[in-house]
Specification:
Helix content: 10-25%
Radius of gyration: 35 Å
Shape: extended
CATH class of the largest domain: Mainly Beta
CATH topology of the largest domain: Dna-directed Rna Polymerase Ii 140kd Polypeptide, Chain: B, Domain 6
CATH architecture of the largest domain: Beta Barrel
Low-confidence stretches: none
Length: about 600
């Protein structure tokens, strides 16, 4: 065997020397750490492929504890566990004795970690304290995670931060730009140990829904959900949406300032008396006043933009400008709070918080913790919902097709555990790798007179007939996500256009249109829908009629003062009106500026 090359040794990424017996050095350093001769926070990682030894001592590395394994046996014994439970041994002592050590991501590359003691072989170097600690905080809050596909678990974890709940109990004092508050949050029936550690019950963000997995007259095709209108009326998914508006009495050079007041008729840009009826004498809207979209919540006037000349009498009355704050488009509500204070410059600052009650409607988004998200396809009258022999009606109907391809078996197990928890009136442990086994859930259902597989006989709410086949039904925690159709819906027929291109503006706030882009245009070309293509790209966009010279192919001049139309190149009068997009005309003008002359070949319409 050829002699191993001399290995490079790095400390915190800096080359500090070379070593001939790097394997021995690595073993000695790890042994010294376990014997508490060097800090337990130091990590030693040997990279076999590059023959480099990395020693990391810097701050900011994420480390996690693992039990050290020697020859297939963990160093942390049952005797140690008993002493830990009795308080005779501390966590820090187990680290100092080399029974538990902290690894960072780099050293973990060289570790062979067993999930539980039963898996241990002589090749293993470490053992997990509990398999759940291999997951992140958010991911470990997904019950029965070990039965879900990894991609869907990540998807479910991503939607935790989109869920509406109680973000903080000081929501009345806060004036965030946007805020949400769930009206009737509940504790999870199926919970994980992580939730207990985090005290999530004090900040709940879910509601436990009775869910039946079945199609419902096509309203829950694909990922759509069908919801019981009775449940909605009883407060399921109902939440408050808070929007804060603020304004400052800015001071300008020359001693002029803005003023909070009800603008008078002399104000430049005065909007008419009816617009200001909701304002008090101080120019601020009253508490619990109902405001609609585009209503004024803070009345304010500003000094004129330019200094005015003094009149012949030596006096001029300052003409103030209208600069009031209006509510945003599509966000009406009631005034929840008005705060008058001052900013760091000592200027008067006003914040107005508007509250809207958001009741679930068709198009709103809901999700379970397993990445099973969907929008409401229908809210069905309670009388028309399918029901069981005992008269139970589900809150939500989920499409069966959303389960097999996604392989979210954890969702089904949570339904089963939720059902058992509801019957027994106790929380069920769904902690990944530590959850209540399926067999125990089935036994509990049998004991309480239910079918062990979670299925029930349902009757059609419309016809009263028994539905063929049994329907899997259970209780699962769902969260309402902040993607609401009321804040996303956008439509326009006519409206403002951009000055440069004369095309419709972009964005909901600016009353913009929906962009019919190049790719959408190609679909119409593929269909052969020429007139629709013309309508979308010309008529509905930036149609303009320009004069074009037949001979030169350039845009002609229309001199309306002298009543003359002529070509700027040949001075000829053979010019004809041509329909085109203003954006195209603009392109030609920009090319002219670059010294490129474009010629249009025109002829009669055929």
């Amino acid at each position: 065997m050829p002699a191993k090359k001399i290995a490079k040794v790095y400390i915190n990424g800096r080359l500090i020397g070379f070593h001939e017996q790097v394997d021995k050095l690595t073993e000695e350093l790890i042994a010294a750490r376990r014997e508490n001769k060097i800090s337990p926070l130091v990590n030693i990682a040997y990279h076999d492929d590059t023959n480099e030894l990395y020693i990391n001592t810097d701050a900011g590395r994420v480390q996690r504890p693992l039990i050290v394994v020697d020859n297939g046996k963990p160093r942390l014994t049952d005797d140690d566990l008993r002493k830990l439970a009795e308080g005779k041994l501390t966590w820090q002592e187990t680290v100092q004795q080399g029974k538990i050590e902290y690894l960072d991501s780099e050293e973990e590359e060289n570790a062979f970690v067993a999930m539980n003691e039963g898996e241990l072989t002589k090749e293993h170097t470490h053992l997990e304290i509990n398999p759940v600690v291999s997951l992140s905080i958010i991911t470990s809050m997904i019950p029965y995670l070990q039965h879900d596909m990894a991609g869907k678990a990540l998807h479910g974890a991503k939607m935790f931060k989109q869920g509406i709940g109680i973000s903080g109990i000081n929501y009345n004092l806060r004036s965030d730009t946007e805020g949400y508050l769930l009206y009737y949050p509940q504790k999870d029936i199926v919970r994980t140990k992580t939730m207990t550690f985090l005290d999530l019950d004090k900040r709940p963000q879910v509601q436990n829904f009775v869910v039946a997995i079945m199609p419902y007259r096509g309203f829950n095709m694909l990922d759509a959900l069908v919801m019981n209108k009775g449940s909605v009326e009883r407060g399921v998914g109902r939440n408050a949406y808070y929007r804060a508006y603020e304004a400052v009495e800015t001071r300008y050079p020359g001693g002029q300032t803005d003023r909070f007041e009800v603008p008078t008729e002399e104000t430049v840009g005065y909007l008419g008396a009816p617009v200001y009826t909701k304002l008090g004498e101080d120019g601020l809207v009253n508490l619990e006043q109902q405001v609609n979209e585009r209503d004024i919540v803070i009345g304010r006037t500003s000094p004129p933009r330019f200094l005015e000349e003094i009149s012949e009498f030596g006096v001029v009355k300052e003409k103030r400008r209208e600069s009031s704050i209006i509510t945003r488009k599509g966000k009406p509500g009631s005034v929840d709070r008005v705060i008058v204070t001052e900013n760091e410059d000592g200027n008067k600052l006003v914040k107005v918080k508007v509250r809207s009650t958001m009741i679930p409607e068709v198009g709103d988004k809901f999700s379970s913790r397993h990445g099973q998200k969907g929008v409401l396809g229908a809210i069905v009258e309670e009388a028309d919902m399918p029901f069981t022999a005992s008269g139970m009606k589900p809150d939500l109907i989920l499409n069966p097709h959303s389960i097999p391809s996604r392989m979210t078996v954890g969702h089904l197990l949570e339904m089963l555990a939720g059902k058992v928890g509801s019957i027994k009136a106790e929380a069920m442990d769904g902690t990944p790798f530590n959850s209540v086994p399926r067999e125990d859930l089935e036994r509990a259902l049998r004991e309480h007179g239910f079918r062990h597989d979670g299925k029930e006989v349902f009757y059609d709410g419309v016809t009263g007939e028994r539905i063929e086949g049994e329907i899997f039904t259970g209780v699962v925690s769902y969260r309402r996500l902040f993607h609401m159709v009321a804040h996303k819906v956008q439509a326009r027929a006519r409206g403002p256009v951009q000055i440069l291109t004369r095309q419709p503006t972009e964005g909901k706030e600016k009353e913009g249109g929906l962009r019919f882009g190049e790719m959408e245009g190609e679909t119409l070309v593929g269909h052969g829908a020429a007139m629709l293509l013309q309508e979308k790209f010309i008529e509905d966009s930036d149609k303009v009629v320009e004069l074009v010279c037949e001979k030169c192919g350039v845009i002609a001049i229309n001199d309306q003062i002298r009543n003359r139309r002529y070509c700027p190149i040949c001075d000829g009068s053979k010019v004809y009106p041509v329909e085109m997009s203003y954006g195209f005309k603009l392109l030609i003008d920009e090319l002219k500026a670059l010294g490129i002359m474009c010629k249009m070949v025109i002829g009669d319409k055929v």
